[in-house]
Amino acid sequence: MKAIQVAIGVAVNGNAEVLVALRAPEQHQGGLWEFPGGKVEPGEDVESALAREFLEEVGLRVLQSELLYEISHDYGDRRVALTVFLITSFEGEPRPKEGNPIEWVTLEQLKALAMPAANRPIVEAVLERLGLERVVE
Ligand SMILES: Nc1nc2c([nH]c(=O)n2[C@@H]2O[C@H](COP(=O)(O)OP(=O)(O)OP(=O)(O)O)[C@@H](O)[C@H]2O)c(=O)[nH]1
Ligand SMILES: [Mg+2]
């Protein structure tokens, strides 16, 4: 099975909070919290996909981002290859443009969120990058 290429972003605000969205029940891995993002389209590079998905899903214009982490995960029903960016500068106020609730959460709150399995090492990388204790020792 070919992996689906996905670009996702961890936007950080001035209070050291990160932006998360709730996946709709009918979506793959529905009912779990995610970092906004989505599938890279044919012919599109992964940074462009990140910028497009952020505008489409939460209405933010990405001004500055850096590569944070890459992970492939097999969910059984599909394989995904996630490229994760830390978004250090953006423009606009986040709005749930596709109807999924969105929230700024502290890193402590992030640790406790129910997210898809592929996100556990991503959260570790976020905590490490932003300077907090790891979740698992
Ligand atoms: N956006 C997002 N997708 C994630 C995360 N973690 C994770 O495993 N995924 C998986 O990545 C895949 C693609 O993400 P997506 O469903 O957001 O894609 P999309 O926005 O293009 O959705 P669409 O197909 O409805 O247009 C899904 O299978 C999803 O389960 C995450 O933190 N954020
Ligand atoms: Mg999406």
Automatic annotation (TrEMBL):
This protein's UniProt keywords: DNA damage, DNA repair, DNA replication, Hydrolase, Magnesium, Metal-binding, Mutator protein
CDD domains linked: NUDIX_MutT_NudA_like (cd03425)
Nudix hydrolase domain sequence ranges: 1-128
Record keyword DNA repair present: yes
Source taxon at top rank: Bacteria
Major enzyme class: hydrolase
Pfam short name (any one): NUDIX_4
Protein's recorded name: 8-oxo-dGTP diphosphatase
Lineage: Bacteria, Pseudomonadati, Pseudomonadota, Gammaproteobacteria, Alteromonadales
